[in-house]
Predict the 3D structure of the following.
Amino acid sequence: MDFRPSPAQQLLVSTARDFLRKHCPPELVQRVLDARGVDDALWRRMAELGWQGLLVPADFGGSDGSLLDVILLTEEIGRAVAPGPFVPSAVVATAALLAAGTADQKKRLLPAMAAGERIVGVALASAGNSCAIDARGRLTGRALFVEAAHVADALVVVARAGGDTALLLVPTDRRGIARWPLETIGSEKLFEVAFDGVAIGADDRLEPAAARREALAAGALARTAEMVGAAQRVLELAVEHAKTRVQGGRPIGGHQAIQHACADLVRDVDASRGLLYAAAWKASEGAPAAAEVAMAKAYASEACLTVVRRAHQIFGAIGYCEEHPLHLLHKRIHAASLDCGDAALHLEDVAQAIGLA
Amino acid sequence: MEFEFSAAEKAFAEDVRRFLRDNPLDRFPLDGMDAGYGSGAHSRAFMRALAERGWISMCWPEAYGGQARPMFFKLVLFEELALAGAPFGPLAGSWQTADAIIEYGSERLRRDVLPAVARGEATFWQGYSEPDAGSDLLALKTEARRDGDHYVIRGHKIWSSHAGIATHGLVFTRTSREARRSRGFSMFVVPNETPGMDIRPIRSLTGGVYHYEVFLDDVRVPAELRLGPEGEGFQALLNGLDSDRFWGRFYKAPALERVLRRLVDHANTTGAGRDAVLRRQLAAMAAEIAALRLLFLRAACLLRDGAPISYETAVAKVYADETGQKLARLGMDLLGSWAPLRAGSREARLDGEISHAYLTSLGHTIAGGTAEVLRTTVAVRGLGLPAEPRKA
């Protein structure tokens, strides 16, 4: 039993934290949120550090990390609310390609994705998805809540195919695809993607389609890591505020009402992180970890939102302002709680895992 | 990172499971009530059975009759016993006391008490709280007055668990008045039959007896029964309380896992498990229990590695107690009209275990440091928030 990241992992984390502190301050996050949702310079620098290629084997131009490494890095990305489609492209789509891509598909995309030159989005959610392939092999329907579809070069799409499920890899410049932005409260750019009789060839399939589950599990862990990283940052900001904000001649953190609130933030963050690391370690070792992943995502969704809501109360009025980073962290946690399966979906998986008939 | 037990630890878990298979629990008579912490009832017979296998003293140094096994073996034993619902009530207290005696006990304590602990015969009650010294423990009034090579103890202790059926008390006393509030305390290991000691049961809201109050009327004890240097008892107490939070709660997660399994079986049998809300509640409890276990295992790694602990055991203890209360509440809701039926009643469900767990859990956020005191500990010691001003 050992909770400590390896020396190499600690280096990865400290490098990421320093880099993001310097290159991804809250002002940049706010600016990108108001604009296209991706900062090209930041995305390129991240690729230079090998982040987008961390899950990719060296044979395909990646830096050959483990899923656990990616999770530790994603925690830092969540902490900084770093903009850009890291989780969909560098985690979920990458995991799908690794598990179900042909040699040609991998060779064509993975090196470019690792280099930050290509972005692959994912349309794997069941909410609002009506995609289906007809008998002539044409894709019709729509997918909702597709992140960063506007900058994606291709999309991994789940679609009904007769009685089966198909997993597709569709270039976004193909005829019949339209992308419509959805306006969200957060920094993520979500889209409705409509497919109108899009031609699908044999080269556009990812098989087996069940690889979708593996990709979603990696995504669920990454979203959990974002939540844990963001909630850790919220905790630190709230404690700092409680120590320095003086009212009635004393720091507000000298009062038990605030102290006990802060103690609960620690519990929620620590407990979420424990579940995250245990699940990520198990998945990283190649052991079946579906129940652990579901527990981690469901638990952190609830706990990390509780952390940030409680923090709003600790901060008082200043936390209500746009210039304060609390809302950015809050919205990122909320968005992460929904993507790759919300708490209700994961709890049903847990219910089955504990033997509920 | 690694989130599993080592091969040796797993092999030991298998040994414990084999022992539990070979020795059905109904063979062990119970002597004292199960207080719901997860360690089951007090059973001398079960303690003797653990002792026969060398498991009580397995982590002690060889010089004291132990096998010098790593501390994680104790965690493995706790987990397996709690998952099975075994009656190992006094075990954590025996371990803690033995560790303290090994660390700073007199030769006489080591010679007299340790072998009895190893045999499963010596068990201990804590004489810390007093009627006017609860969360403010240092307000205690019990005094130990030096008289030659003896001390004479006079005072009144209360909320001492299983004092009437244990063999020794750990009696925390004031031995001198000092300028610093935390100095001048000493701890004694006092055999129960010592003249002047009057141990009276307190019936709890469960109808059973777990706590006792102890009147100490000029109880004369040899100085060799003092645990550690005179006047330095407070540090020993703090270590004891810290360790109490950990060892006295470590088995809560596996014990709750066992209860949750029973609730799941019940929900499947009655069909209640098809309800979407209940499914989510039970699943969320499973996640909370898993998170709880990891909080304790993380603290265990820090203890094992000798890393500093500021708030980790306090967080874990509060979470253990509140998660236990939550599960008991969910169990009561699930059983509905059957919920209040007690063990032995006609129509009782799950052996009346849930109503007992519900009632006992009410005391858990109070005993061994209230949830409020511990949240303050987390904030002040763990997060560095300013302590509230305190009257001298």
